[in-house]
Amino acid sequence: MEANILVVNCGSSSLKLAVFDRLHNKLVSALAERLNTDDAFVNIAHADEPISLPAGASHETALRALIDALRDRGILAQDPAAIGHRVVHGGETFRGAALLDDDAIAAIGECAGLAPLHNPVNLAGIAATRTLYPNVPQVAVFDTAFHQTLPPRAFLYALPEAYYRDWAVRRYGFHGTSHYFMSREAARLLGLTPATTSIISAHLGNGCSISAIRDGISVDTSMGLTPLEGLVMGTRSGDVDPGLFDYLAGKGVSAAELHEVLNKQSGLLGLSGQSNDMRSLCELAEHGHKPSELAIDVFCFRLAKYIGAMMASLTALDALVFTGGIGENSSQVRQQTLSHLRLLGFELDPELNQSNGLYSDGRIDSADSRFPVLVIPTNEELVIAREALRLAEKSQPV
Ligand code: AMP
After folding, report:
1. N or C, fewer C-beta in 10 Å, the chain?
2. Which segments of the chain does DSSP mark as H helices, in order?
3. Cα dist from 356 to 273, 299, 328, 360, 371, whole Å
């Protein structure tokens, strides 16, 4: 039996695991949440027996518990062939996935200043799996790497150039693994060659970002130095006027408070006063809740403006692609967004849109649309599994 591939995604208080076989079929996924709190818990998808975790369990404790449970179930009966880790920030150091040796790990640590909530927990996950599996090749796949092809005109802020030179202040972009997957999957569905396919991809989940991908490479994206810039998100504001900081400081709002508000109390939640969850807001709006209707309106209008903005980086457009929990499931958001872009020639087929493109190879555009519009379920774990195996095999030629 061939060894499987383990995919690890450590968030600030959560841990997701997935196991793939060598043919890239997902065998199992598991989730640990509320780590480092008294309510820490783990769950293996479709498992009958619960797995217990001690209160306050760390990422490492949860990882060990899950790996033991998967071993007992025969899914990780032998050591994996490769382990792939999602790492949020690779700065300008990483332009692609990297085999994790001591130098790469140190470089990820050096990027931690740019993602202080994420890179340290990613490193904790890497340290734990290295201890558990010292002889298995481990690979990092970065959220930022796919966007390292942005030209300076797209990644530079109009700030004093020393900010970039001395402090690495620039736009990095995130969700790169998802945007990469969408560009390849769109090319496949449309029967095109990835290296000559140009798309606009909108990843709309709890976090939201959009990318212009020209001839297979990312040339612009909406997230910036941090994942706060750009679109309206579940609890994040997206773009605001930087003049806000000074104005609110005058009102006694500290930088730390504003950081918290912009990241955790804004976006759909802030506007609706009810929920960060688009599905709930659509239901509330249907029952006449005006603030929810307004939140959806702001969300769709900002998204429409960004779709227009992404056009500036393209000379051709093979498809507009939607993904993420909202992008894959909300016909209302897609319809409402594109209703602002009639001038550009996007037209949806109401029935195909309603069915989320499920029976039409992802296509939801109508016959008279100027551009194809697709819905594609994203699969970042699959990309991480593929990259992990690819680099592991390169490092250990048979
Ligand atoms: P994700 O982070 O990709 O899991 O996406 C989460 C978001 O997708 C939440 O805002 C959900 O409410 C939203 N979502 C999932 N299903 C639907 C749906 N059927 N309609 C509208 N939004 C949805």
Report:
1. C
2. 59-72, 102-110, 119-132, 152-155, 161-167, 176-190, 243-250, 255-264, 267-272, 278-286, 290-310, 324-329, 331-338, 350-354, 380-395
3. 28, 19, 6, 9, 17
Mutation test residue for ligand 1: of 201, 281, 296, 329, the one with most atoms within 8 Å of CB:
329
The rounded Å distance from CA 269 to ligand 1 centre is 14
The residues that bridge with 320 in the sheet, in sequence order, are 200, 373
The H or E element containing residue 210 is strand 208-214
Residues in binding site: 9, 16, 86, 203-207, 277-279, 325-329, 380
Q: How far apart are CA 392 and CA 139, in angstroms?
A: 8
Question: Measured between alpha carbons, how far is 118 from 45 in angstroms, rounded to an integer?
Answer: 25
Active site residues: 143
Ligand 1 lining (C-beta closer than 6 Å) = 205-206, 234, 277-279, 282, 324-326, 329-330
Report the separation in Å between the CA atom of 285 and the middle of ligand 1, taken as the mean of its atom positions.
15
Mutate-to-test residue for ligand 1 from 29, 275, 280, 330, highest number of ligand atoms within 8 A of CB: 330
Ligand 1 atom with the shortest distance to the CA of 280: 12
Distance 344 CA to ligand 1 centre (A): 27
Whole-angstrom distance, CA of residue 216 vs CA of residue 208 = 21
Ligand 1 centroid–CA 28 distance in Å is 22
Please report the sign of the dihedral spanned by the C-alpha atoms of residue 225, residue 108, residue 180, residue 351: negative
Please give the Cα distance from 211 to 189 (Å, whole number).
19
- Please say whether the beta carbons of 314 and 198 come within 8 A: yes
- Angle at 96 (CA atoms; ends 387, 215), nearest 5 degrees: 100
